[in-house]
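Q: I'm writing a short explainer about EGF-like domain-containing protein for a general audience and would like to include a description of its predicted shape. Could you first generate the structure from this sequence?
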Amino acid sequence: CPPGWTGTRCQTKCPHGTYGQDCARNCTCQNGATCDKNDGRCECEAGWYGMYCSKPCNNGRFGWRCQQICACKNNATCSNVDGSCAC
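A: Of course. Here's the predicted structure. Afterward I'll give you a sentence or two in plain language.
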């Protein structure tokens, strides 16, 4: 079977948490990230970045690929996921 597939006719995608040839490799993605079934690359959830999605957005940023800028005032803490402010 090509990477990402398994079964007697290669008809089944790799189960969650596995990837590669015969689905023999374990995904190492963190914080809810999805793992590419072919090569194991991680697609990070909002608020996270890095090879394994293990790093939170830097202070002042949030969202998918940390592209949005926080608007919190008076030294409130900004959520790296959704930009909500906590006093």
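A: For your explainer, you could say: The chain has a mean pLDDT of 96.
Q: Perfect, that's easy to follow.
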